[in-house]
Amino acid sequence: MSGFLSGRQYVMFAIGVWACAAALADNGIDCRTASANSMETLVCRDAELMALDRALSAVYADAMMKAGNERPPVLKAEQRGWIKGRNECWKSDDQRVCVVDAYRRRIVELQARYRLVPASPPVRYVCNGNPVDEVIATFFTTDPPSLIAERGDQTSLMFLAPGPDGARYQGRNESFWERPEAVTVVWGFGMPEMPCQKADDTAVSPLRGSAWQLLAIRPAGGAREGAAVVAPGAFTLAFGAKGDALFRIDCNRGRSRWKVGASSAPSAGTIEFGPIATTRMACPPGSPDQRVMRDLSFVRAYRLEDGKLLLSLANDGDVYEWGPTAPGKGVE
C-alpha cells in the first residue's frame, strides 16, 4: 500500500481538516492562533473568561445536538455572528465587562431557546383587557434567570434585571414587569406599557385531560369521501387541565396553549390553539407534518361525535378527525 494519498483521498482529507477547523471556530477559541491585542487574546489571558468560553462551547455542543435537523440551519451562522459581536468589544470602555456580558447572555440564549435547562409551564397573560391580545411567557432557570415571551407570531428573549420592585425582565425592545399589584408588558421600541393579568384556566370543557391520535384529514366540509388517512400514533394531541396542549407531529414534539369559547352544548364549541413551539427535525418524505403544523393554527371549532373529536378549520376548511388514545401516550 502506497504511503501517498491519491487525488481523491487528498481532497477528502482536506475537506475533513477544513470541517474540523470550522467546528473549532464555531465552538471555542484556539489560543494558539489568537491575534495580538484581539478579544481572543484577552480571553486567553484571563482564567475566568476562558472558563466562560469552555462553558459556552459545552452549551453550544448541546444546542447543536438539538438543532441537528433544523431547517433552515441557522445556529452555526448565528454563532459566527455572535463571535463577530463579541470581538466588537474592543470598542467598549471596559472590554472585559463587555466580553463577560456577551458570554453570559449567549449561554442563556442557547439554554432557553433549545430547552437545555428546566422551564416553567407556559403562563398566559391577557393584556389591555382583550382576550385576543395575549402574551405567553415561559420562564427558565438560567443564570441570570430568563424568559421567552410570545405575542402573536413574535418572540422575545428577556433577562431578569436587578431591581427592588418585583421581577423585571428586559429584552431588546420588550420588557416584562411582574409586581404584586400588576403585570405590565412593553412590546416594541417606544411602545406604551400594556396592563396585563394572568389568564384564568380555560373554561370547563370535556376536552380537559383527554388525549387523541389523528386518524384522517377530511376535505372541506368534513365529507368522508376523499379523506387522507393518517397512520395511527404518528400525530397525537393531549389537552392539559390548565390550558396546555402537547403535540406529536410525526417526528417532532410541540407545546402550545388551548382555549375554548362559552357554549351551550359541551360536546361542541369554538376552540383555538396559541403559537406552537416545536422541535425542528426533518420528518421522512411524504409526511404531512408541515400541513398539520400549518393547519393547527387555523383550528376554530370542535365537535365530539361517536367517540371521536372533529377539529374544523376556519372558513369551512378541512376537518381533522381524531380517535381517543391513552393520556400521555405518544406525546412524551
From TrEMBL:
Residues 206-318 form the DUF306 domain. Pfam families: LprI, META, MliC. It comes from the Bacteria. Gene3D superfamilies: 2.40.128.270. GO terms for cellular component: extracellular region. Residues 125-188 form the C-type lysozyme inhibitor domain. Keywords: Lipoprotein, Membrane, Palmitate, Signal. Residues 31-106 form the Lysozyme inhibitor LprI-like N-terminal domain. This is Uncharacterized protein YPO0702.
